[in-house]
């Protein structure tokens, strides 16, 4: 798998900006929203299309039904018009967002992370929406470009032991991804997930 993190991050940023900052906003609203979006990207990492099933933002799910997107399947309530970042997401419901904040604060995380949620005082998606930022705060420093170090990524992935695990250059470095792949292949070939199936 080719690692094109910069290219993917730039493309994801433009898509997220176009979604969260519509043309119907006034010039001052657009400027305010774009400044806030850049700060969120600096803090939470680049926009992404979903999460590895081991990521703390989605890890509270039924092991038989893994999820890659925050929602009811992993403990959230009231999400609407949501955009994802490597270590957080913005959701823009048309209500006060109390249920979003309450559900996010009750998410059970591994000891290496915690989840927080806050209302944003900036327009996103629509003038009458209530933007809320949900963040994953890690207990250790992340690697450059907001990637998760292998000392956390590999154990989290192993803990989930899922055959549908996902890796992305926006979450881990190539070295970490190769370590995950090597470990995953070894587990699969050991037979611990059952007989190998030909594709």
Textual characterization of the structure:
The protein contains five helices and five strands; from the N terminus they run ααβββαββαα. Helix 4 runs parallel beside helix 5. The chain has a five-stranded antiparallel sheet with strand order 1-2-3-5-4. A hairpin with a 2-residue loop joins strand 2 and strand 3. It has helices at residues 5-20, 27-44, 98-105, 150-160, 174-190; strands spanning 47-48, 82-85, 88-91, 113-119, 132-138. It has a domain at 5-140.
State the end-to-end CA separation: 19 Å
Number of helices: 5
Pattern of helices and strands: HHEEEHEEHH
Give the uncertain stretches in residue-range form.
none
Let me know the average pLDDT.
86
Which band does the percent of strand residues land in?
Answer: 5-15%
Radius of gyration: 18 Å
Largest sheet: 5 strands, antiparallel
What characteristic shape results from the CA principal axes?
globular
Structural class: alpha+beta
Helix content: 25-40%
Total beta strands: 5
Order of strands, main sheet, comes to 1-2-3-5-4
Q: How are the secondary structure elements laid out?
A:
Blueprint: H1 5-20, H2 27-44, E1 47-48, E2 82-85, E3 88-91, H3 98-105, E4 113-119, E5 132-138, H4 150-160, H5 174-190
Antiparallel strand pairs: 1-2, 2-3, 3-5, 4-5
Helix pairs in contact: 4-5
Give a nutshell description of this structure.
The chain has 199 residues and is an alpha+beta fold.
Task: Pick out its properties.
199 residues, alpha+beta, 5-stranded antiparallel beta sheet, 5 strands, 35% helix, 12% strand
């Amino acid at each position: 798998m080719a690692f094109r993190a910069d290219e993917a991050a730039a493309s994801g940023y433009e898509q997220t900006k176009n979604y969260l900052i519509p043309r119907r906003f006034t010039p001052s609203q657009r400027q305010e929203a774009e400044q806030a979006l850049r700060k969120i990207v600096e803090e939470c990492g680049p926009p992404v299309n979903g999460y590895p099933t081991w990521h703390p933002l989605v890890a509270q799910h039924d092991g038989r039904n893994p999820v890659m997107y925050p929602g009811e399947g992993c403990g959230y309530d009231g999400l609407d018009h949501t955009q994802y970042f490597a270590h957080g997401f913005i959701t823009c419901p048309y209500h006060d967002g109390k249920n979003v904040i309450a559900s996010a604060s009750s998410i059970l995380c591994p000891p290496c992370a915690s989840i927080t949620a806050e209302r944003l005082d900036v327009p996103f998606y629509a003038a009458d929406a209530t933007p809320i930022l949900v963040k994953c705060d890690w207990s250790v420093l992340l690697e450059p470009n907001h990637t998760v170090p292998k000392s956390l990524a590999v154990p989290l992935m192993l803990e989930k032991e899922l055959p549908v695990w996902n890796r992305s250059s926006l979450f881990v470095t190539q070295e970490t991804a190769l370590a995950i792949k090597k470990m995953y292949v070894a587990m699969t070939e050991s037979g611990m997930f059952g007989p190998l199936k030909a594709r």
